[in-house]
């Protein structure tokens, strides 16, 4: 680094994707950055779970929008590929139903359309092509003015789109629900169910989510990437990129309180009583933790108010485990659909319970995109899996005892069996995280994995932006703009850093040298 440049100390609270990205960006702008996290490893929700002597990815399992990381590192001499090995997937996901039918979707639209025609008929294949085209249009319209930009007000957003372009506004379909819009493309109820699942990527119900989220189809078609060593390796890779810029990381170091003086931040108090002075903080945690006063009165004064339980996104029953290598065509990503989608989401959001026949997602972490087990898994005779079942975010009001956890596991295995995958329960080794577990891991969230649910056309404008009412305090993470998911949380960190730099001013440090020879992802 250029030692002649004055370096301003900046504290990042939380080493999730937003915090890791903010730290990299700020260090490149000459800030002396320290990242504090109560856990002993980076990643936030992108965590490892120890099961039966193995480490299983227990959080996000899909990596898309690589351009976000390219933008984060642009002009630095660093590349994401210097930190992690990446392979672009051809097969996006495999889907199974209780009637025995199965459908693979591919990154290539034409290949997917052919599969859909064989699975259903030509009309639905044509509908898929129109669906993809409309999703791409929506994404293109929103990418720069909304997704990659500081959170606008409604008036600012309409102006960015072009105030007189009514057709452009309506193209976004903000007033249609995802479920109703899908009826314009697919007559086959299985396909409607499949593509409605995109709403769960933001923790929401397809019966209340705006059809704007059709854009997720295009995001996947742009590229789903496999990360060598699993998704947790991505977080470790970002730490190494940050260290190359001079970022310091203090893991196992929780923050008890944010301090302020005269209307701006002045420091933080750690769990052990140590005080760290700073005039700039990026908070990468659930925004509800601030409004609930979990980091002191200074945080409460920021006023994003806690998200009410009825407005929270989905939580999950997350079953991380190992099992004998299944004699079943599992892909790396496989979805086993429940028979009644309306009943499934009504149970979660209206009745606050898990349906008896839930949709189950499995990430078979020792399989390539096409479902071939790794050599290590074949030799060991066991493979690592993460099974997810959607659940209500009631982790701060409901405890899951052994009987409740056992019931959830039973429902999961019964649904898999109905779709053709029969697992010997006695052979499974599992660690189960419930909504109560997620609430404990991520204070203030109530167990919601994705922050506020994206229900209604105004929901995206109700998320907090990077700036707060307390000078020097900025927000990042999946609970703030632009939303949840690995690339979106990363974008939030980039936006928080850019807002901080713009408000405080700083001189860019000398560019870090590219890291020669790549990096280990172990």
Descriptive keywords:
522 residues, 7-stranded mixed beta sheet, 5-stranded parallel beta sheet, 19% strand, disordered C terminus
Q: Any overview of this molecule?
A:
By secondary structure, this protein is α/β, with parallel strands linked by helices. It has helices spanning 17-28, 66-73, 109-119, 122-147, 154-161, 166-171, 178-182, 189-196, 215-222, 231-244, 288-291, 297-300, 341-349, 375-380, 402-418, 435-441, 486-504, and strands spanning 8-13, 31-37, 48-51, 54-57, 86-88, 91-96, 102-106, 225-227, 248-251, 255-261, 264-270, 275-277, 281-284, 315-324, 333-336, 360-364, 382-391, 429-433, 473-476. The strands form five sheets. The protein has a seven-stranded mixed β-sheet. A hairpin with a 4-residue loop joins strand 11 (264-270) and strand 12 (275-277). Helix 1 (17-28) runs parallel beside helix 10. The longest helix has 26 residues, at 122-147. The radius of gyration is 22 Å and the shape is globular. Mean pLDDT is 92; it is low at 1-6 and 507-522.
**How does the overall form come out from the CA principal axes?**
globular
Largest sheet: 7 strands, mixed
- The span between the termini is 27 Å
List segments where confidence is low: pLDDT < 50 over at least 5 consecutive residues: 1-6, 507-522
Radius of gyration over all CA atoms, rounded: 22 Å
Oligomer class: single chain
The structure class reads alpha/beta
**What's the number of helices?**
17
Please provide a brief summary of the model.
Helices cover 33% and strands 19% of the residues.
């Amino acid at each position: 680094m250029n030692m002649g440049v004055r370096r301003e100390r900046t504290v990042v609270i939380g080493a999730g994707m937003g915090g890791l990205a903010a730290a990299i960006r700020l260090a490149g702008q000459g800030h002396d950055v320290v990242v504090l996290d109560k856990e002993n490893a980076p990643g936030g929700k992108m965590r490892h779970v120890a099961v039966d002597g193995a480490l299983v990815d227990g959080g996000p399992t899909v990596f898309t929008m690589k351009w976000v990381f390219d933008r984060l590192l642009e002009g630095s001499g660093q590349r994401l590929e210097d930190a992690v090995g990446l392979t672009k997937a051809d097969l996006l996901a495999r889907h199974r139903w209780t009637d025995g039918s199965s459908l693979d979707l591919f990154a290539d639209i034409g290949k997917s359309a052919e599969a859909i025609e064989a699975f259903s008929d030509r009309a639905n294949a044509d509908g898929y092509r129109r669906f993809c085209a409309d999703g791409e249009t929506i994404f293109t319209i929103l990418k720069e003015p909304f997704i990659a930009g500081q959170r606008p007000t409604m008036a600012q957003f309409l102006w960015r789109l072009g105030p007189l372009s009514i057709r452009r506004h309506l193209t976004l379909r903000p007033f249609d629900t995802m479920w109703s819009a899908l009826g314009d493309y697919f007559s086959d109820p299985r396909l409607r169910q499949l593509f409605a699942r995109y709403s769960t990527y933001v923790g929401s119900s397809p019966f209340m989510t705006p059809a704007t989220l059709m854009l997720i189809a295009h995001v996947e078609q742009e590229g789903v990437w496999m990360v060598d060593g699993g998704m947790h390796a991505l977080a470790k890779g970002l730490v190494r990129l940050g260290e190359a810029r001079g970022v310091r990381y203090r893991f196992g170091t929780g923050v008890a309180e944010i301090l302020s003086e005269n209307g701006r931040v002045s420091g933080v108090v750690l769990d052990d009583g140590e005080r760290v002075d700073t005039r700039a903080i990026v908070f990468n945690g659930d925004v509800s933790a601030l409004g609930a006063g979990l980091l002191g009165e200074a945080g409460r004064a920021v006023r994003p108010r806690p998200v009410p339980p009825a407005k929270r996104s989905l939580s999950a029953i997350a079953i991380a485990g190992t099992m004998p290598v299944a004699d079943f065509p599992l892909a790396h990503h496989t979805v086993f659909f429940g028979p009644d989608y309306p009943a499934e989401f009504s149970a979660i959001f209206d009745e606050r319970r898990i349906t008896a026949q839930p949709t189950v997602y499995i990430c078979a972490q020792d399989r390539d995109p096409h479902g071939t087990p790794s050599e290590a898994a074949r030799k060991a005779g066991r493979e690592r899996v993460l099974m997810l079942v959607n659940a209500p975010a009631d982790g701060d009001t409901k405890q899951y005892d052994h009987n409740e956890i056992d019931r959830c596991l039973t429902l999961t295995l019964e649904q898999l069996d109905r779709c053709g995958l029969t697992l010997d329960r006695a052979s499974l080794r599992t660690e189960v995280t419930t909504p109560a577990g997620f609430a404990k891991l991520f204070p203030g969230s109530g167990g919601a994995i994705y922050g506020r649910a994206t229900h209604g056309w105004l929901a995206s404008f109700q998320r907090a932006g990077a700036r707060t009412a307390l000078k020097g305090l900025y927000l990042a993470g999946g609970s703030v703009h632009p939303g949840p998911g690995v690339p979106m949380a990363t974008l939030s960190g980039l936006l928080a850093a850019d807002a901080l730099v713009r408000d405080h001013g700083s001189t860019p440090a000398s560019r870090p040298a590219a890291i020669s020879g790549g990096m280990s992802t172990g």
